[in-house]
Amino acid sequence: MAENTQKPAAGSAPAKPKPAAGAAKPAAPGAAKPAAPGAAKPAAPGAAKAPAKPAAPAAAAPSGVFKPPVDRPDPNPFKDSKMSAVAGWFQERFYVLNPIIDYLKHKEVPKHRLSFWYYFGGLGLFFFIIQILTGLLLLQYYKPTETDAFASFLFIQGEVPFGWLLRQIHAWSANLMIMMLFIHMFSTFFMKSYRKPRELMWVSGFLLLVLSLGFGFTGYLLPWNELAFFATQVGTEVPKVAPGGAFLVEILRGGPEVSGETLTRMFSLHVVLLPGLVLLVLTAHLTMVQILGTSAPIGYKEAGLIKGYDKFFPTFLAKDGIGWLIGFALLVYLAVVFPWEIGVKADALASAPVGIKPEWYFWAQFQLLKDFKFEGGELLAIILFTIGGVVWMLVPFIDRQASQEKKSPIFTVFGILVLAFLLINTYRVYAEYSMLK
Ligand code: HEM
Ligand code: HEM
């Protein structure tokens, strides 16, 4: 790509922020009138001995002290740069951030035959942004109470202009987001991107996946239809077999059974707690993406398999944008052509319909529980799953080979087994339940 070989555009590397430099140095003795008390004071005792440099601007203020532009040595240190007036205005105020901005401009993404997989983190981010936007719009009409939830849901689907589209996009984007995160997780796993120094990217990513699954679980109940009601009944029952689990179930449900209280809890988790937590962890994850840059698979550099680098800004971001446009087209297509069903209002007194199952991303665990139906089996399944999850989260710290830039085939096999377990169990639920229809 042409950009890789070019120097950063003049506009992107502004003239050095003179006030910062000036402010740090003491004014030379005898320099012109100090503009403010203290401004010309030498910063250190030895400063007076310093050889007379070309007079630093007299009015240099100690950093952190605001001075009106007229008193500054150079009211606009960026006047020579090719930045727009607006960008210059911000630059003048936030010049301390310049090193960060410059860093981001120089970030590069390696190009090789597996580069395709670098798009899935960005796609996960895109669908999350869609979730926030559509979720906030749905919130204008949705009512999280036992009596009103289903009616408001019908109202959104039937009466609100484009409400049906928003609801379908929210429901489809939730599924696509989680799908992208699984692809992102396994692709970073097989490329061993979690290896030193990106251990915390993996851990924060794993937490993001758990939180996103929490979004899916809590959102599922919100329409308050029969399917969601009974699936939540089954889902929240699971921890009961573990010691102390009954207490957890009671907290989740807001009582012994799934009821209007449960809806309130799921709603608050869905629209307040989880978004807050995700934004926090996501900020950490994306900051690390920028600080640590993108890794290349082990041995690629040495073997000459890197075909060059894309500048993150603007080249890679533009390519990400193309991925987002494709994702958006797919989302609208699915939302219009394959609408999610509305169902019938939940009725706690009705008997559970056949074919109750959770969302597809919980099917693997669901199947494991079904397979472990013997005495003490459910507890064993929960223990196995918890241990598996913790080991998976700590993989970067266990796989020492990868952290020394050596291949670690045992972990590749481990990843294949985990993937196979998830795919096979998911397919088993799909096959069994599609026969029930
Ligand atoms: C700040 C972000 C979000 C807000 C404000 C929000 C808000 C809402 C609201 C008001 C509903 C109920 C309306 C309805 O059921 O159609 C809903 C449903 C739902 N949400 Fe969210 N949501 C957000 C993020 C997410 C995320 C990140 C996910 C998943 C990864 C998600 C998954 C779901 C699901 C699966 C439903 C049920 C969809 C259905 O069957 O209609 N939401 N959300
Ligand atoms: C809301 C969820 C997530 C978002 C928005 C997100 C976003 C991103 C983005 C934009 C990148 C840089 C480009 C790329 O390699 O795709 C990235 C890198 C990375 N992510 Fe995530 N991610 C999320 C979840 C996860 C999960 C679930 C994991 C794994 C458990 C994970 C692990 C990583 C790792 C290890 C990298 C470094 C890749 C490299 O340098 O080659 N992330 N993430």
UniProtKB/TrEMBL annotation:
Record-annotated Cytochrome b/b6 N-terminal region profile domain positions: 86-298
Chain positions covered by the region annotation Disordered: 1-74
Keyword Heme: yes
Any one Gene Ontology BP term: respiratory electron transport chain
Bias (Low complexity): 7-64
Membrane topology: Multi-pass membrane protein
Pfam families per UniProt: Cytochrom_B_C, Cytochrome_B
Gene3D superfamilies named in the record: Cytochrome Bc1 Complex, Chain C
Transmembrane segments: 116-142, 169-190, 202-222, 272-300, 321-340, 379-398, 410-430
Superkingdom: Bacteria
Keywords of the record: Electron transport, Heme, Iron, Membrane, Metal-binding, Transmembrane, Transmembrane helix, Transport
InterPro entries: Cyt_b/b6_C (IPR005798), Cyt_b/b6_C_sf (IPR036150), Cyt_b/b6_N (IPR005797), Cytb/b6-like_sf (IPR027387), Di-haem_cyt_TM (IPR016174)
GO-annotated molecular function: electron transfer activity; metal ion binding; oxidoreductase activity
PANTHER family: CYTOCHROME B
Protein name: Cytochrome B
Organism listed in the record: Chlorobaculum limnaeum
Lineage: Bacteria, Pseudomonadati, Chlorobiota, Chlorobiia, Chlorobiales
